[in-house]
Design brief:
It contains five helices and 20 strands. The model is unreliable at about 1-5 (pLDDT under 50). The protein has about 300 residues and is α+β, with helices and mostly antiparallel strands. The chain is globular, with a radius of gyration of 18 Å. The strands form four sheets. Strands 1, 2, 3, 4, 5, 6, 7, 8, 11, 16, 18 and 20 form a twelve-stranded mixed β-sheet that branches. The chain has a four-stranded antiparallel β-sheet with strand order 9-17-12-15, with no helix packed on it. Strands 10-19 form a two-stranded antiparallel ribbon. The protein has helices spanning about 20-30, 45-60, 105-110, 115-125, 265-270, and strands spanning about 15, 35, 65-70, 70-75, 80, 90-95, 125-130, 135-140, 145-150, 155, 165-170, 180, 195, 200, 215, 220-225, 230-235, 240-250, 255-260, 285. A hairpin with an 8-residue loop joins strand 5 and strand 6 (about 90-95). Helix 1 crosses helix 4. Helices cover about 20% and strands about 25% of the residues.
């Protein structure tokens, strides 16, 4: 499917200073992505310290890790992928065990008033957190790429789906793995994904990196993107780690209908999508309130 010419970076970015929430939300709705410069800068020092402490712990536990279909999982919950040749150990961190359950700074940043203002304007008055927060960690000298994909391939939702807010922890550029986005791609629906080194991804022949807009940035810059927006990041070829952290917000009545990490288990999950219900999928309310009711979709 062809898309119109992607918007240049300047057309999808705003600054946190004197943030016009209505205008920012309009950019997000139109392009499926939005860059807010400096939005979470006040939290970066504390979060960076927690992330590096978590990375040291995860690496110390690598010998105790267990093989799972997605890679190697250490007892703290960190996911490792095979490291490139010559790295010095056989596994590299992909998803680091740093979350709302382990870092108060991480949780406090998820409750930032300006970020919640944006989530509320985009999603409506009743907003919950989806998940426990996520930290993606590219180790230096070859840290893994994340192939272009849509988050909806991993967690398709009944309604709008979550708004992701990805924030840089260190200066991030084309050398160490900046996020790439395809503005407007959220209008394509959920695309067919294939298995890649970094789990589900899009066919590179149809979705080459040349179609994307790279978002270089500074610590505290936040990229918001729709669950159907195509995005990804290349390897980290610098000498230092490149961590990011992600908050996800969704409407209080929304829920996952298809959850997958491979093409095979996505097909299996699609066959059971009609069985999905809101029960046991309630997140922490961050705006508004949750109203109890029973519906054909399983209540809220």
């Amino acid at each position: 499917m062809s898309l119109s010419t992607p918007a240049v970076l300047e057309q999808i970015e705003v600054t946190a200073a004197n943030l016009d929430v209505a205008r920012a939300a309009s950019i997000y709705r139109d392009q499926g992505c939005l860059v807010v410069r400096g939005l979470l800068a006040p939290y970066i020092s504390a979060i960076a310290a927690d992330i590096e402490a978590a990375a040291r712990t995860a690496i110390s536990l690598l010998d105790q890790g267990q093989q799972i279909p997605e890679g190697r999982l250490t007892p703290d919950g960190t996911l490792f992928l095979p490291a490139p040749p010559g790295f010095g150990r056989p596994w590299q961190i992909m998803v680091l065990a740093c979350s709302y359950e382990t870092s108060s700074a991480f949780l406090h940043s998820a409750l930032d008033p300006r970020l919640l203002d944006l989530a509320e304007v985009i999603l409506g008055p009743d907003v919950e957190l989806f998940g426990r927060g996520q930290c993606l960690y590219k180790e230096p000298v070859g840290g893994h790429a994340k192939h272009l994909h849509q988050d909806g391939a991993y967690f398709e939702h009944r309604f709008e789906g979550p708004v992701a807010a990805l924030t840089y922890v260190v200066p991030t550029d084309l050398e160490n793995g900046a996020l790439h986005v395809v503005p407007g791609s959220h209008r394509t629906g959920i695309l067919e994904h294939v298995d890649t080194f970094s789990h589900l991804g899009l066919d590179a022949r149809e979705w080459p990196w040349e179609r994307t807009v790279p978002v270089c940035g500074q610590p505290g810059d936040t990229v918001l993107f729709h669950v159907k927006t195509v995005h990804g990041s290349k390897e980290n070829h610098s000498l230092s780690p490149r961590p990011v952290f992600i908050h996800r917000y969704r409407q209080a009545d929304d829920y996952v209908t298809v959850s997958a990490t491979t093409a095979a288990n996505r097909r299996e999950a699609e066959a059971r999508a009609g069985e999905a219900r809101k029960e046991n999928q309630r997140g922490l309310m961050v705006r508004g309130r949750r109203t109890y009711h029973v519906s054909a979709e399983g209540g809220a």
